[in-house]
Structures are given as C-alpha cells and as structure tokens.
Amino acid sequence: MTSKKQSAPRKRAKTAQAVYPTSAVAVAARNLLNMAVVMATCATILLTLMIVKRF
User: Fold this and answer.
1) Residue 49: inside a domain, yes or no?
2) Total domains present in the chain
3) Is residue 2 part of a domain?
4) Does the pTM exceed 0.70?
5) What integer pLDDT is reported at residue 35 of this predicted model?
6) pLDDT greater at residue 49 or residue 23
7) For the segment 6-25, what is each residue's pLDDT rounded down to a tens digit?
8) Could you tell me the residue range of the domain that residue 50 belongs to?
C-alpha cells in the first residue's frame, strides 16, 4: 500500500508595510535640521580659523 504524502501547509505571503507620509516628512525634517547644524558648526569653525590666521 502506498501512503499519501501530506502537502506542507501553504505559507502566507508577507504583506509589505505601508510607508506613511507623516514618517517620511518627519525623517526629512530631521535630516534638514541635522544638515543645518553641521553647516553652522563648520562655518563657525572656518570663521574662527580665518580670524586666528590674521593675528
């Protein structure tokens, strides 16, 4: 007698999580703020070095 093979249960496809626009806007705003802070810091250091170089 042959025994029937039981098929493995089907795996459900994972649904992709939706990207919410509010989170994308929050990330973009945070990145913009970080860029502004870095640019201000670099500008301050450069100005300080230029002033020190004159004396």
Assistant:
1) yes
2) 1
3) no
4) no
5) 98
6) 49
7) 777 777 777 777 666 788 89
8) 23-55
